[in-house]
Design brief:
The structure is a single chain. The protein has eight helices and eleven strands. The protein is an alpha+beta fold. The chain has a single domain, classed as Phytochelatin synthase, N-terminal domain (Cathepsin B, Chain A, Alpha-Beta Complex). The strands form three sheets. The protein has a seven-stranded antiparallel β-sheet. A two-stranded antiparallel sheet has the order 2-3. A two-stranded antiparallel ribbon has the order 9-10. Strand 9 and strand 10 form a beta hairpin.
Length: 240
C-alpha cells in the first residue's frame, strides 16, 4: 500500500491558531489593531488545490480578498478566482511539475489586477519586513511570504502562504498556511520567518522573500510584459 499522510505536527515553538494560546494571541492582536486585514483574508482562506500550488493558492486568497474581478468566468455565470485561472505567466502543467518562484508569483499577481512590491532579505532589512507586516495588519495591503519550511523545522522546502495578522508586542505573525492538509494556520516568530526567507531558491539563485499586493484595476491592462514572464523561471523550488 502506498504510504500516505494526514497532516503533520507543528514544531514546539509554533502556536496553533485554534489552541487556547492561539486564541489568546488572536484576542490580543485584535485589540491592538494587528488583525484589521485578517477578516477579508479569512473569508477567502482555502486549501491549495494541488501539492505544487502553494503560490497559486496564496494568490487566490489574496486576489479574492482584494475583491478583484477576474473578468473571466469561473463556473456557470460566476466570475471568481481559482487556481485554474492563474495561467498568464506560467503554464499550469509546468506549475504542477515544479511550483513557482517569487518573481513568477509577482508576475501572476500583476497580470490579474494588482500592484506588487517585491522584497528580498538580500536587498531589504528586518525593519522593512516588520513595516510590511504592520501595513498588512492595518489592511493596507496583503502580504504573501515565500520561505523555506526546513528553517522553521517544518516538513518540506520552499513554500508560499498569506500572512493573516501581526502581534507587534510579541513579534508574532499569523501564517494562513494554504497547505492545510499538512499544517493548520499558526503563529510564529516574525524573526524566525524573516530568517526562513533568507534561504536561497535554487531556481533563481536568490533569496526568497515576500510580496505586498494592492488592488489596481488598471494593472492588468498596463502589464504588457505578462507574456514575457512565462519564461521568467524554469525550475522553481516552491512546494507545498
Amino acid at each position: 500500500m502506498t504510504e500516505t499522510f494526514y497532516r503533520r505536527m507543528l514544531p514546539s515553538d509554533t502556536i496553533e491558531f485554534s489552541s487556547p494560546l492561539g486564541r489568546q494571541l488572536f484576542a490580543e492582536a485584535l485589540a491592538t489593531g494587528g488583525l484589521d486585514g485578517y477578516f477579508r483574508l479569512a473569508e477567502q482562506f482555502h486549501t491549495q488545490a494541488e501539492p505544487q500550488f502553494c503560490g497559486l493558492g496564496s494568490l487566490v486568497v489574496a486576489l479574492n480578498a482584494l475583491a478583484i474581478d477576474p473578468g473571466r468566468r469561473w463556473q456557470g455565470v460566476w466570475r471568481w478566482f481559482s487556481e485554474q485561472l492563474l495561467d498568464c505567466c506560467v503554464a499550469l502543467d509546468q506549475i504542477r511539475q515544479r511550483g513557482l518562484d517569487l518573481d513568477e508569483v509577482a508576475c501572476l499577481a500583476r497580470c490579474n489586477g494588482t500592484s506588487v512590491d517585491v522584497f528580498r532579505p538580500e536587498t531589504s532589512d528586518a525593519s522593512a519586513w516588520r513595516a510590511s507586516l504592520s501595513a498588512a495588519a492595518r489592511g493596507e495591503h496583503v502580504v504573501i511570504a515565500s520561505y523555506d519550511r526546513a528553517r522553521l523545522d517544518q516538513s518540506g522546502s520552499g513554500h508560499f502562504s498569506p500572512i493573516g495578522g501581526y502581534h507587534a508586542e510579541r513579534d508574532l505573525v499569523l501564517i494562513l498556511d494554504v497547505a492545510r492538509f499538512k499544517y493548520p494556520p499558526h503563529w510564529i516568530s516574525a524573526e524566525r520567518l524573516w530568517q526562513a526567507m533568507h534561504a536561497v531558491d535554487p531556481a533563481t539563485g536568490r533569496s526568497r522573500g515576500w510580496l505586498a499586493l494592492r488592488a489596481d484595476p488598471q494593472q492588468a491592462m498596463r502589464d504588457a510584459s505578462a507574456v514575457a514572464c512565462r519564461s521568467a523561471g524554469s525550475n522553481a523550488d516552491a512546494k507545498g
